[in-house]
Amino acid sequence: MKKYSTKTWLLTASDLEEILIQTGPNRFIDLLIERLTRGLENFDSSSLEIPIRTGFNYQAAPEGLVEFMPVHEKGKEVVLKVVGYHPHNPDLFDLPTILSNITTYDTKTGHLKTIMDGVLPTALRTAAASAVASRAMAKPGSEKLGLIGCGAQAVVQLHALSRLFPLKSIWIYDIDPKAMDNFQDRIEGLELDVNLIRSDIETIVDTVDILCTATSIGVNEGPLFEHYNCQPHLHINAVGSDFPGKLELPRNLLLESTVVPDFREQAKIEGECQQLQDTEIGPDLKQLISQPITWKTIQKGMSVFDSTGWAYEDQIVANLMEELGRALGVGQGIHLENVSSDVKNPYHFISKPVQV
Amino acid sequence: MKKYSTKTWLLTASDLEEILIQTGPNRFIDLLIERLTRGLENFDSSSLEIPIRTGFNYQAAPEGLVEFMPVHEKGKEVVLKVVGYHPHNPDLFDLPTILSNITTYDTKTGHLKTIMDGVLPTALRTAAASAVASRAMAKPGSEKLGLIGCGAQAVVQLHALSRLFPLKSIWIYDIDPKAMDNFQDRIEGLELDVNLIRSDIETIVDTVDILCTATSIGVNEGPLFEHYNCQPHLHINAVGSDFPGKLELPRNLLLESTVVPDFREQAKIEGECQQLQDTEIGPDLKQLISQPITWKTIQKGMSVFDSTGWAYEDQIVANLMEELGRALGVGQGIHLENVSSDVKNPYHFISKPVQV
Per its UniProt record, what SUPFAM superfamilies does this chain match (chains A, B) (predicted)? Predict the structure, then answer.
């Protein structure tokens, strides 16, 4: 019998940072955009099971949720992201709004193959998804990007989009002036040649070619704006709407736009698609990416990528992180699962060895 | 702002073994039986959310499943066990049938508090649950224990029951003669003063006071026996039935017995309760334990504990492991989650520090 490896590959927060530093952030995000694009082009719904995320949400102070986002690639693996969303984390605990981890399992045995931080991968895959969607839907050569909400997501959205578009001016707004004050510092490491312009929401919406909304607007407090006189080709990556009742965009704008959800069934519950009938929703992301012939038409009009977060994106980023980590020797193998030399004895460590 | 600890307490396989060795297996299982009993007595359904486990199961070679078992104690924590069940693991890969891990989350923030092996805790909590159920339902002073299926579960079932009953003779059967051959060796460390008697299923059923069935019988291949002429007070811990169509006991025996499920809704789908109508099922375990006045009557007749595995048991064993681990200094704190000093910058490690 060939001995099965029972080590779990552990990638901590600093391991993932090390992978990005050694790979180079630009090369990493380019790789991720490429993998996600290929994954969407080749999406095989007969081999992938992706249920809607489920979990627990609570209003009890402080409000939040812990949810489970699994994906099953038949004959290969299960990937699970556990994600916590607690909007008061930055203010109350100096913690990110989103905390999470990702685990992957070999479906031959149920063995836990890897465990890694999910915070950085979530940020990166969300940004990569916006880039992939924008390449299909936004005006090629777009130079003006708007960021409403200048938190963690805005940094990586800007980074990913800068790899596909010749961005020149970045129009920013945040309800917290401090987030605008230090945005320049936070993107310093990206070494982008762009102008940052502080503005108000209405001006941004009416000016830019591409807009990313990534706010913590409260349930039933949206949309972020009502009236608009935007570019005829405006493309919006709507990232913040990911909870029932949490909406960033006005319904009228959605009706004028091609609306592409990342995961249709989930977006109808948690995303901007909450505001739409089935017939008012466009193709989903995997349909869009597998039909490049439709892109040119969509690029001429208004479009919205309704990004609620999809476990398939987590699988792709987790696999890339693990692959790079193993190649670079970053991370460590640990014996997490109790797998004794005598599988029929949970007390092998207090008993004498069994003759087999 | 008080700084929130963002370390995750990691308990590997050998850490959990160390906790058991330092605590002493007897003291550990006594503590666990005690905690579980108190937890069931004080079970507060208004503060605990425990959904039926869900996940992926597959027939593709080799067959198996990966499932998610969460519990939410409101205002405190979420505990998640991910469990793989792959019955061909021992034969194909020299791995245990069950592989799993347990993670716990602070619901204030979503922070991952602990990650630990789930293999050993699953074995221990399943055994402790049988002990708790048997104390309520089996004849006090029972001396004869039957074990049908002599795998990993049988070892810990025997151990837990030996702490509550003056066991003298242990009647064993396994479809694999080797599992009977080396059973004595596997329980050596428990230092029990018992006689092991190899027997056949029918003799065991008709002889013993308490019976534990923990087999890997296939779907639609049960029950393990049809006819019986057992003790009028026979109590059975039915551990093996935990999958649709997987059954160990004949329906007639269930109808003659008080049948107590660990988790009613799940047992009706996966346990012996699949064979019963609602009205044919007795109180569930938490009802039974909180009503000791009913025990004496139940002890006089036949009874079955339909043990399918319950996330609440996982929470209790995980909390006990973590508590002992921290007290003994076993385990280590790791920075798994990417939590930077600048929560609004996922790229803090490539940017210059932000002035706050």
Answer: NAD(P)-binding Rossmann-fold domains
Are both B183 and B284 inside the same structural domain?
A: yes
B13 interface with A at CB cutoff 8 Å: yes
Write the DSSP string, A113-135.
EEEEESHHHHHHHHHHHHHHHHH
B298 and B319 part of one domain: no
Question: In whole angstroms, what is the distance from residue A56 CA to residue B107 CA?
Answer: 9
Count other C-beta atoms under 10 Å from residue A2's C-beta: 7
Residue A140, token pair as written in the block: 């090629």
How far B199 CA sits from the closest chain A CA (Å)? Answer: 19
CATH of the domain at B264: 3.40.50.720
Task: Considering only the beta carbons, identify the residue of A109, A112, A152 that sits closest to B93.
Answer: A109
- CATH of residue B321's domain is 3.30.1780.10
Helices (H), B94-246: 119-137, 152-162, 177-181, 183-186, 201-207
Distance between CA atoms of A85 and B92, rounded to whole angstroms?
Answer: 41
Q: Are residues A165 and A99 in the same domain?
A: no
Cα–Cα distance for residue pair A132/A351, rounded to 1 Å: 56
Beta bridge pairs of residue B306: B238, B261
Check pLDDT > 70 for residue A2: no
Q: Shortest CB distance from B346 goes to which of A94, A120, A340?
A: A120
The structure tokens 């504990």 sit at B305
Answer yes or no: do A300 and A326 share one domain: no
Does B356 contact A at CB distance below 8 Å?
Answer: yes
Distance from CA of A292 to the nearest CA of B (A): 32
In a domain, residue A343? The reply is: no
pLDDT at residue B273 above 80? yes
The C-alpha torsion from B231 through B235 and B240 to B245, rounded to 10°, is 80
Q: Counting beta carbons within 10 angstroms of the beta carbon of residue B61, is it exposed (0 to 12), middle (13 to 18) or buried (19 or more)?
A: exposed
* Structural domain of A319: 8-120+312-334
pLDDT in tens, B75-119: 999 999 999 999 899 889 989 889 999 999 999 999 999 999 999
Peptide bond into B62 cis (omega under 30): yes
**Quick one: which of B281, B269, B306 has its CA closest to B51?**
B269
Which residues on B lie below 8 Å from A128 (Cβ)? none
Higher per-residue confidence, B173 vs B347: B173
Enumerate long-range contacts of A258-261, CB under 8 Å, 24 or more apart: A258/A137, A258/A282, A258/A298, A258/A301, A258/A302, A258/A303, A258/A304, A259/A303, A259/A304, A259/A306, A260/A133, A260/A137, A260/A284, A260/A285, A260/A288, A260/A303, A260/A304, A260/A305, A260/A306, A261/A285, A261/A306, A261/A308
Is residue B3 situated within a structural domain?
no
Number of folded domains in chain A? 2
- A49/B56 touch (CB, cutoff 8 Å), yes or no: yes
* Contact assignment for B337 to A119 by CB distance below 8 Å: yes
Tell me if A19 is assigned to some domain.
Answer: yes
In this prediction, residue B352 carries a pLDDT of 56
SS3 B298: helix
